[in-house]
Amino acid sequence: MQEQYNLDELPKIAKMILEKANSKVFAFYGRMGIGKTTLLREIVKQLGTTDNVSSPTFSLVNEYQYPNGLIYHFDFYRIDNEEEAYDIGFEEYLYSPNYVFIEWPEKIENLLPNTYTKIEITEIPTSITKRNITIENIITN
Predict the structure, then answer these.
(1) Alpha helices in 47-140 (DSSP H)
(2) Cβ proximity of 73 and 88 under 8 Å
(3) How far apart are the first and last CA of the chain?
(4) Which of 1, 2, 31, 120 has the most crowded Cβ, counting Cβ within 10 A?
(5) Looking at residue 129, what is its pLDDT?
(6) At residue 85, does pLDDT exceed 80?
(7) DSSP structure class, residue 109
(8) What residues form DSSP beta bridges with 117?
(9) Average pLDDT over residues 86-99
């Protein structure tokens, strides 16, 4: 599924993503500065958290509480290899019953579960404020 949106439409897009998702694991793809964390912040807000959501670029993972449990937010931009994700216990987070949001999943592609929701954000060449978003439920065996 593909949509176009601007910042004013983030609540609508976040709600749609949560409704369309087939899993509690979300992989966010897009270039640096495209708005992955901004979108993620709105999704986490829609889940009911009042925590301050920021990119865990240096800590690799942030944890947020929401009414039904925990949300784990990973940013793998700074890792050099998948072994670093193993070292922080990524698989334990991944297979927990909690939400897991991953920025820069291309860095740990081989560690992604068989079922997850892929979110890809790209620019629209004719607009500085609008974005394209592709939402795809991934199921592999």
Answers:
(1) 82-87, 90-94
(2) no
(3) 22
(4) 120
(5) 86
(6) yes
(7) G
(8) 26, 137
(9) 93
Nearest Cα neighbor of 1 from 106, 103, 120 is 120
Q: DSSP states of 62-118 as a string?
A: EEEEETTEEEEEEE-TT-SSHHHHHHTTHHHHHTSSSEEEEESGGGGGGGS-SEEEE
3-state secondary structure (DSSP) of residue 59: coil
Work out the mean pLDDT of the chain and round it to a whole number.
93
Query: How do 69-75 and 99-103 pair as beta strands?
Result: parallel
β-bridge partners, 49: none
**What does R_g of the chain's alpha carbons equal in angstroms?**
14
pLDDT at 59 over 80: no
Question: Within 13 Å and on the Cβ side, how many CA atoms surround 43?
Answer: 28
d(CA 70, CA 49): 9
pLDDT above 80 (res 42): yes
Beta strands 61-66 and 99-103 are unpaired
Q: How far apart are CA 107 and CA 85, in angstroms?
A: 9
User: For the residues 32-48, what does the mean pLDDT come to?
Assistant: 94
The band of 52, judged by pLDDT with boundaries at 50, 70 and 90, is: confident
